[in-house]
Design brief:
With 397 residues, this protein is α+β, with helices and mostly antiparallel strands. Helices cover 35% and strands 23% of the residues. It is built from twelve helices and 13 strands.
């Protein structure tokens, strides 16, 4: 019998890196809303009292960067300097400039060396799905997301009014023979108000925070998953977490790529998603890879599925593509690769069209993961290709 414990983490929408992802994606949405053909590569840095937005844009639209930054900060909950940033008083520096014409000619249809729309850059992308959860995601990252999601929900609806925006979760799941059997450990770090006046000392304050987080955040999420769990919880392991946000920890776009995907349970090609329009295959092809893997698992063609793409800048056809099922399919990996390649679009233009990626939908992806989400905006999470896949398999047989 094979036994192991696997751990994934997530971070809340108020984590400084996620703040930057949210700002970058809000800017992408702002341009695409006005001009669906916009090309955006936007990076954000957030530090003490200051947000810097930089990158390349080619668009017929325009965005008031300062207004959008402040709006995003306000939505997250950074409206007080004590929390780590005040959206009204933050200094915003915008350094967006025009996209390189040499990149443009490789991305635009009918320009450059090739007629078709090419990939916006070279690179490799992975997608993954498994039957551990109804959303067809690995259980550790699924639970980690649900924990920080609940922290945010209870903060914003006033159930736990002393919570502040910054936070993290970590979940360790015990596996036997490749199947999750129990929850071994849960870690939560959550920013909170200074409550020393009320509780007298840091230990009493921590005991209160720990008790409330366990009863109102951790246990409800674990109870819903249905697996047994050890009450081995760590809440604010340093003892206190009042000083947080961008003032305590500088944030950058694209620094939480494992949180954004599968929590380390599957490979990652290295390219971040946030701040990029869909011509960047780092984003669009990773979404298509997830879409292919999820539909294969949803069609009961495999219990787990990994998909990889690679591309060359300016070239439409992938330089490689494979489907791998780790021995959980009755079909060979070669057969599934051939079938998937025949029914799913693999070129950037086809991917963008099929998944309807030239519409504002990116700001909501900036927290709680890009995958495993039940939301109409997440078109790559649909399982609308199941019947087509089954038909293709039947025809092959």
């Amino acid at each position: 019998m094979s036994k192991f414990v696997f751990t994934s983490e997530s971070v809340s929408e108020g984590h400084p890196d996620k703040v930057c992802d949210a700002i970058s994606d809000a800017i992408v949405d702002g341009f695409i809303a006005q001009d669906p053909e916009s090309h955006v590569a936007c990076e954000t840095l957030a530090t003490k009292g200051t947000v810097v937005v930089s990158g390349e844009v080619r668009s017929n639209g325009s965005v008031d960067v300062e207004k959008l930054v402040k709006k995003t900060l306000s939505e997250i909950g950074y409206n007080n300097e004590e929390y780590g940033m005040d959206h009204e008083n933050v200094k915003v520096i915008s350094m967006l400039h025009e996209q390189s014409s040499e990149i443009a000619q490789g991305v635009d249809e009918g320009t450059g060396l090739h007629e078709e729309q090419g990939a916006g850059d070279q690179g490799l992308m992975f997608g993954y799905a498994c039957n551990e959860t109804p959303e067809l995601m690995p259980l550790p990252i699924h639970l980690a997301h649900r924990l920080v999601e609940r922290l945010t929900e209870l903060r914003k609806d006033g159930t736990i009014p002393w919570l502040r925006p910054d936070g993290k979760s970590q979940v360790s799941v015990a596996y036997e023979n490749g199947k999750p059997v129990s929850i071994a450990k849960v870690v939560i770090a959550t920013q909170h108000n200074n409550m020393l006046d009320k509780y007298g000392d840091e230990k009493a304050e921590h005991d209160f925070v720990e008790s409330e987080v366990i009863e109102k955040v951790i246990k409800p999420v674990l109870d819903e998953c249905g697996l047994p769990y050890e009450e081995s919880f760590i809440v604010n392991g340093t003892g206190r977490f009042v000083f947080g946000g961008p003032e305590a920890d500088t944030g950058l776009t694209g620094r939480k790529i494992i949180v954004d995907t599968y929590g380390g349970y599957a490979p990652h090609g290295g390219g971040a998603f946030s701040g990029k329009d869909p011509s960047k295959v780092d984003r669009s092809a990773a979404y298509m890879a997830r879409y292919i893997a999820k539909n294969i698992v949803a069609a009961d063609l495999a219990e787990k599925c990994e998909v990889q793409f690679s591309y060359s800048i300016g070239v439409a056809e992938p330089t490689s593509f494979y489907v791998k099922t780790f021995g959980t399919s009755e079909l060979s990996d070669e057969a599934l690769t051939e079938i998937a390649g025949s029914v799913f679009p693999l070129k950037p233009g086809g991917i963008i069209s099929h998944l309807k990626l030239k519409y504002p939908r990116y700001r909501p992806t900036a927290a709680n993961g890009h995958f495993g989400r039940e939301d109409e905006l997440f078109s790559w999470e649909k399982t609308d290709m199941v019947d087509i896949l089954k038909s293709a398999v039947a025809e092959r047989n």
